[in-house]
Amino acid sequence: MKVQLNQAIKQTISQKMIQSAHVLQLSTAELRHYLEDLALENPLMEFIQQTTPNAYVKESVSEPDEQNYVYDRQEQADSREVWDSGQTGTLSDALMFQLGGMVLGPDIRRILIYMIYNLDANGYLSVSKENIRLVLDCKEDAVSDALAILQDMEPYGVGARNLSECLCIQLQRLYPEEQTAAKIAENELVLLGKNQLPVLARKLHRPLNEILHACEIIRSLNPRPGAGYSDGNCVSYIVPELLVFQENGRFHVTLNETQPLSVQINSSYLQMLHDCDAETAAYLEQK
After folding, report:
1. Rg, C-alpha atoms of the chain
2. What is the C-alpha separation between 7 and 219, in angstroms, rounded?
């Protein structure tokens, strides 16, 4: 029996190395979308948006509003893909199909048809109840009843007059037990858009982990219920990685740095690590 000692070098690829290799291959637009997707589920991520002047750029694309980047990100995603690839008809077609199976009085049906054909591309009702009453010469109670029926149709959130109402309708249909989420959607979307969750917790007198859970539910909702029925005529703009321009008979190539995006950890949450319960501290450490 012979014992032999051999020396060998082995390289182990960790999960972090795989992730780093993936990130390095992303284009600027893909990297931006990757970070924004992470930010949807990680409240500790905070974007610092700056504008770097570039003498060679004639026109720049405006940055999304910092206070509402969550919903702006959703709007950008809608322009790149159809939510339900099986939908080929319009939103009004889908709603009229549902209306056909309902037993309603002629006045309510007439009001509903008028409402359906006055929904905007997001599925929101674009005319007021008072205007509907005047145009159709009907009673206010009939308009309210028709609106309640419309807002009970699918996709949930259709027929809302604004974002807050759209989210509240979906919460009532999908998560009726989530009262904290309902309060945030009804009155505190500005604080949610700013990701100021500790402020929300203090204002609503609820623990931070409950606020985090409520916000995750709200962010899973569809702020544009009519987007899945898009007719495909949207124009998607491509932001180039490089800019090529001609000057004095010579061509020059430069990086497109008109949309810099820096990421940092939210300082409010870092401070909370030293003054919170064990469950919340574990959550923050994980994020």
Report:
1. 25
2. 53
Per-residue pLDDT of the chain (287 residues; tens, 9 = 90+): 677 777 766 666 677 777 778 888 887 777 877 887 777 778 788 777 655 444 444 333 344 444 444 455 555 555 444 444 445 578 888 999 999 888 889 999 999 999 999 999 899 998 999 999 999 999 999 999 999 999 999 999 999 999 999 999 999 999 999 999 999 999 999 888 888 888 889 999 999 999 999 999 998 999 999 887 855 455 556 677 788 888 888 998 988 776 666 788 888 788 887 778 887 888 888 88
Outline where DSSP puts E strands in 15-67: 45-49
Task: Give the whole-angstrom CA distance, residue 253 versus residue 273.
Answer: 46
What does the angle CA 164 – CA 166 – CA 172 come to, to the nearest 5 degrees? 100
Q: pTM of the entire structure? A: 0.54
